[in-house]
Amino acid sequence: MIIPALKAPLVLVHGLFGFNRIRFFSAITIAEYFPGIVDSLRAAGNHVLVPTLSPTGGVAQRAQQLKDFLLRETSGPVHILAHSMGGLDSRYMISKLGMAERVLSLTTLGTPHRGTTFADWGVSKFEHVVKPAFPALDFLGIPYQAFYDLTTAHCRKFNEEVPNAAHVRYFSVGGKHDGNLLNSLLSPEWVIPYSIVFNSEGPNDGVVSIASAQWGEGLEIWEGDHFSLVNWLHPVAKNRTIFRDPTERYGGLLRRLADEGY
How many domains does the chain have? Predict the structure, then answer.
């Protein structure tokens, strides 16, 4: 798959606990949120930007940060590729912060548009434990709204209040993690969230169901877990080994946009 070069810049938006790059002594990159993806897209001739949003801030806060970034770093319309919570931030920014004219398309990857029952479970199990610490977190300026914004109840209200913008194209990608015994042994980190989401919502990427990930004109389903959608390394997890290559998947996303005249 050859990655096409689009006419407008690409903006890659990270999810919960996200970042752009983690550097050592400001020179050596230790980790990237979109490993290999940014380099592949740029090598094909695309102008790629990656904002850094609050790791645990709520959708409204992160959306404002994204808007500020776009107004500062770009002068025209862009295409957005957003992972997980970043898709909600992008939708909010487009529809509620007057940015519809600055976005040509939004492609979400593993975004819980209808929330995730794992967030419901987490809030119900741990809120009473961490709630006493909220005043201290507020004092220290550490946000925590993100965990509530990902619940199914909040996303139900969100979808009622945040309609799609008429002139923005919306596309989506969902992940399908195989929860069989072998993969559970190889990727034990997904056992609990996968089971919680599967029992309530069906097939999922380990935290976001396929049903929740669907938004806009269609849904592509990629095999793998939530972090395989953004090419994270894992020693043995499916689609996340050292031999992983984002070219075919992301080339396909950009090819669809190029074929539409972008």
Answer: 1
Q: How many CB atoms lie within 10 A of CB 113?
A: 23
192-218 average pLDDT score: 95
pLDDT above 50: residue 132 = yes
Tell me the whole-structure pTM to 2 decimals.
0.89
CA angle at 219 for the pair 217 and 221, rounded to the nearest 5°: 165
Asked, for residue 249, whether it belongs to a domain, the answer is yes
Domain membership flag for residue 242: yes
Domain CATH number, residue 131: 3.40.50.1820
131, two tokens:
């709630």
Per the domain annotation, does 3 fall within a domain?
Answer: no
Q: Which of 109, 119, 88, 81 is nearest to 201 (CA)?
A: 119
Q: Is the pLDDT of residue 14 over 90?
A: yes
Write a three-state SS string for 78-100: EEEEEECHHHHHHHHHHHHCCCH
d(CA 32, CA 25): 15
Those residues with Cβ within 8 angstroms of residue 221's Cβ, 6 or more apart along the chain or in another chain: 173, 174, 175, 176, 210
pLDDT value at residue 55 = 87
Residue 5 inside a domain? The answer is no
